[in-house]
């Protein structure tokens, strides 16, 4: 998984897999999902990201089960 924030365009790109995207779906006017041939999410793009996500407060946790 890879997360990139493009400050010049205020765009957040979250890439989940390296699969080839074959379809893009609009979730809303500013949120796009790229899907692979099997319908799995490849990436998500969020335009005007500062208004839609708390990117200044980003954190990551990996929780391991017992």
Characterization of the model:
The chain has 66 residues and is mainly β. The protein has one domain (2-52). 6% of the residues lie in helices and 42% in strands. The chain has one helix and five strands. It has one helix at 49-52; strands at residues 2-6, 11-15, 23-28, 31-35, 41-47. The longest helix has 4 residues, at 49-52. The two termini are 23 Å apart. 8% of the residues are buried. The model has no long low-confidence stretch (mean pLDDT 91).
Which labels suit this protein?
1 helix; flat; 6% helix
Mean pLDDT: 91
Q: Decide which structural class fits the backbone.
A: mainly beta
Q: Which shape, going by the Cα principal axes?
A: flat
Largest beta sheet: what is the strand line-up? Answer: 1-2-5-4-3
Order of helices and strands: EEEEEH
Unreliable residue runs: none
